[in-house]
Amino acid sequence: MVTTMLDEVIFQSSLRELAVRDSDLARVVETYGAPPLWVREPGFPSLVYIILEQQVSLASARAAFQRLRVTANPLTPRRFLTLSDRQLKEIGFSRQKTLYIRLLAESLVKKYLDLNDLHDLSDDAARKYSAFGIATGIRLGYIALAVGWLVGMAIKKGSNGIGGRRYQIAAVALTYAAVSLSAIPVGIYYLLKEKNPVQISHAPSSSSAPNATEPGSASPQDDSPASGQRSTPSLTSATGALLFAGLASPFLELAEGVSGLIGLVIIFVGIRIAWKMTGAPRLDILGPFQGNAPPSPAPNI
User: Model-level pTM greater than 0.85?
Assistant: First the structure.
């Protein structure tokens, strides 16, 4: 298969062809001139830059990317994965973009995706290859549609097709809980991943100077009983916080703008599917009919 790389000659030729087909585009090109061909060095940094440019101004994306280059220098997938959510938020990353780029970085580090292989693929093949490499880590709101259908089918079968309002309420609750609480494993994963670098960074100092303590800090002997006493309450509060965060996660996505709103709408469509499938069947009552009708009188001759 022959792969054609986009260069300035092909770009200008394609622009002229599009202008011939579309009068509005031709008027824009005539008024403002041809847009520039933004050529970027292939690799992870350029992909990060492109993701940052989505749904924000170019100036804002450029400023965030420059701050990222200062914080993570050199900007590699492994270096990016060491940054915490707080650091990325201060740089200018939204929660959704943080998730996207982390999934991309992890796919590159674990060799699920190789950017060098994309050069020889067609556009359609490259999209499928990239999706196969990272799709397993993306939690899409479209799963709510399948969850709504599965919950509706299960309740309908369990109720022998009776349905009704109580079954509809149960279907809605189960569908919403199944979709929203799926954010908890993702949250636990990133929480543990953020804590590990901190523990590793403190290890050398404790081993090199075991008897030294910071001013105002407690010794390790003093920490152990207290930590043991706090273990049960902290576990309970952490579980409650995770449940609350999971149930609230669809609405927290509204902070991401249009994408969060679309995800919430998709979830409600899935809930609507479960609601309709578990409704009570319509009963058509015909009659009344007379069981023992008197015989018709004989006709008079």
Answer: no
